[in-house]
Structures are given as C-alpha cells and as structure tokens.
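User: Sequence for DMT family transporter below. Tokens please.
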Amino acid sequence: MEKKNTVGHTAALITILIWGTTFISTKILLNDFTPIEILFFRFVIGFVALMMIYPYRLKLTNKKHEFIFASAGLCGVTFYYLLENIALTFTMASNVGVISSVVPFFTAILTYLFLKEEPLRINFFIGFIVAITGIYLISFNSTSKFQLNPLGDLLAVIATLVWATYSVLTKKISGYGYHTIQTTRRVFFYGILFMMPALFLFDFEWELKRFTNPVSLFNIIFLGLGASALCFITWGYAVKTLGTIKSSIYIYAVPVITVLTSIIVLHEQITYLAAFGIVLTLSGLFISEKNLVQKNRKKTRV
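Assistant: Structure tokens for DMT family transporter:
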C-alpha cells in the first residue's frame, strides 16, 4: 500500500511539473502559431497518441453519457485552452500560471452547487478573498511590459471558471465505470470537433513547414504527448490512488513552477508587488483547503 501511494505521489508530481511549464511552451509557440493552431495541433497529437496506446472503442452503457462527454470536450478542451492561449498573447506566462491556481476555488463552489457533496466553510471564503487580492496585485503591478495585461488576466480568470465546470463534468464521468484512456480520448474527440468552427473564424493555417523549426516541433510534441496525453493518465492515476483532496494539493505548486520557469526560459521580470501577490494567492489556497485536508486525515486514521 505504501509503495502504491509513493507511485501515486510520483504521478501527481510529474503531472504538475509538466502542467506548470505548459504556459512557457505555449508562450514560445505563439511567436509562430496562433492560439487556435496551437490548440488544434496539440490535441490532435494527444488524441492520436491515446488511440495508439489503447485502440479499443468506447461502448456507452447509457446514451445520455454522450452529452456529458460532449460538454466536457467543449469546456475542458475547446473553451478552456482557447481562452488560456489567447490570454497568453496579452499577459505574462507567470500571470496565467498563478491565476490558474484558483481553479480549486471555483471547482469547490460549482461542486457544492451542482453535486452537493462538500459544504463550504468560513475558511473557504477567507482564503478566497486572500487569493483574489493576490491575483489583483499580480495583474495590476505597475511595471508590467504589456499594456493589455488586465485583459489577458481577465481571460485567464474566465478560463479557470470554464475548467471548474469541466471538473464537475469529469467527476460525473468518473462514476460511469469506463476506462480512463477511453473517456479522455472521447473528451479529446469532442474538443477537437467543437474547435473546428474556430479554425475558420481565427484564420487557421496548416503551414506544416513551421515544424521544421526544432524549437516549435519540440514544444508542440511536449504539449501533445506530455501535457495532454500523458498528464491526463498520470493525474487520473494520482487521484485514484491518493484521493481527490491529497492530489489537489499538488496544484498549489503550478504557479511556483510557472514563475520559476518563466524567469529562466522567457527572462520575465517578476516585481516585488507581483511576488507578494503570488504569496497571497498561495496562502489563500492553503487557508481555503486546510479544514478539508485535516478532515480527510482524520477519516484516514479512523
């Protein structure tokens, strides 16, 4: 059992290390690709990889499940990543990384409203206020290089709401009893399907010769195979082994990884005000989740 938990923690850590650097890869690719192009190529690669790994057709036990899969693909793939990629054209990668850490807040709220599984406590709202204050400091620091920084940060916040919706949908999907790779592949399929209209709306261009650039090729493969295909599998294993609460704690490391990577790779400047905002955001998340983690530990001891 202890060995299994160790593997679970390792899987969660690998997932977060990769997800924490995806903002950097996307930021680099935005030099030669549009947000919709990155999104399309990334998930097509991920879908093909999952098809090769587990080439078995998903047989639905209930036709109503198809609607949930379609909704999950629309929210978790098309809307979320399109909003995130567009946000990166206006704001720093470190901003998007930190703002994404607020996902647990919105997820908890939507889970409470629609699934009625976990009551919201006073510490949840205190933590939320602290985190939002941190986000404000990060978004409106006076030394930002981008004039439209607040717009990019707003898009990133909307993206977290969309991802929270996706989280509620995937929680329902997890109870259907299907194979994780099959469900992930079906979500990817609908995500790619729904982004098709956006390909024409945002002037999508194939221009595959752009992949002759080793940097572009490496980053798109990293996003497709690593951040999309691999991470959905490793994260699913971590949640299954450790539980939702323990695995979600690793999400707090995402902004730290993103900020450190953005400094090293993109040479972005992090001001003292933004750094204080990061501390507030992470503190708010810990305050919000503290009672839930303690409650989970008590159950484990019993």
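The two ends are 17 Å apart (CA to CA).
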